[in-house]
Amino acid sequence: xxxxxxxxxxxxxxxxxxxxxxxxxxxxxxxxxxxxxxxxxxxxxxxxxxxxxxxxxxxxxxxxxxxxxxxxxxxxxxxxxxxxxxxxxxxxxxxxxxxxxxxxxxxxxxxxxxxxxxxxxxxxxxxxxxxxxxxxxxxxxxxxxxxxxxxxxxxx
Length: 156
What we know:
Blueprint: E1 3-7, E2 17-18, E3 21-26, E4 33-38, E5 44-45, E6 48-50, H1 57-69, E7 71-82, E8 87-91, E9 96-98, E10 101-111, E11 119-125, H2 137-147, E12 154-155
Parallel strand pairs: 2-9, 3-10, 7-12
Antiparallel strand pairs: 1-8, 3-6, 4-5, 4-11, 7-10, 8-9
């Protein structure tokens, strides 16, 4: 399903849904960040997606990382809670979702890198190369907060 992200755009359509989503910030021993290139908008992002009925938020984060990258993780900490009503995502099925996402810091514990129907590329990105990638501002904000090693989780 294709999507268009509107971020602080006065011409954005009005949201008609709000669904819990998660993302996971994962670094390897070199400090590189696990990122995917999304199939729905061609942007680079940290792994993530919608929470499913019957799972906890941290279970959703672990599942999403494995589904999108083939890697197994465990949640280690909370980076932040992101609920910006000025960020809406329009899907081609008519859903227009207001951002509501919980970003976790996760630790790599295993697996083998692979792509999926949601990720056309899985890469470990050195922090100094982040500026070379097409990353949505909302994802860049999560990455920035995670890299800051904040004492408290961000929330909006």
